[in-house]
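Work Package 4 report. The design task specified in the project plan requires that, given a folded chain encoded as structure tokens, an amino acid be chosen for each position. We show below one input record used in the internal validation round.
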């Protein structure tokens, strides 16, 4: 498998650290991170304008502290579609994002971390 450039959109520092480490361990690189909804939408603009290259986006369901729904993921997905960005979104959330058309594993990615890299490999 070719090594991938990944954008991580996750508000939790521990989760971002985990993703950076597991991706690096498997030869991939995290090229940008977003810690909130506004930063995530700004990264989509950078991707659309050719200022940022990536092969996949790992997306948390909510990027707003205290949120209990997947509105942030929906906004990111809607903007990605609006801009015509065809980079795969990989859900990394305890929330189900499959109703948004986002690949979401059928296990809790934050609890069963060993399976995360296999999901990433399958989407690239």
């Amino acid at each position: 498998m070719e090594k991938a450039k990944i954008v991580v959109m996750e508000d939790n520092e521990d989760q971002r650290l985990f993703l950076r480490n597991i991706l690096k361990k498997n030869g991939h690189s995290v090229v940008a991170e977003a810690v909130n909804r506004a930063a995530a939408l700004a990264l989509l603009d950078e991707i659309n304008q050719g200022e940022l290259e990536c092969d996949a986006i790992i997306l948390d369901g909510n990027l707003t502290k205290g949120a209990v729904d997947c509105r942030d993921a929906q906004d990111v997905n809607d903007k990605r579609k609006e801009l015509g960005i065809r980079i795969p979104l990989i859900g990394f959330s305890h929330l189900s994002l499959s109703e948004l058309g986002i690949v979401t594993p059928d296990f809790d990615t934050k609890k069963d971390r060993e399976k995360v890299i296999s999901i990433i490999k399958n989407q690239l």
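The mean pLDDT is 81. Validation will be extended to a larger panel in the next phase.
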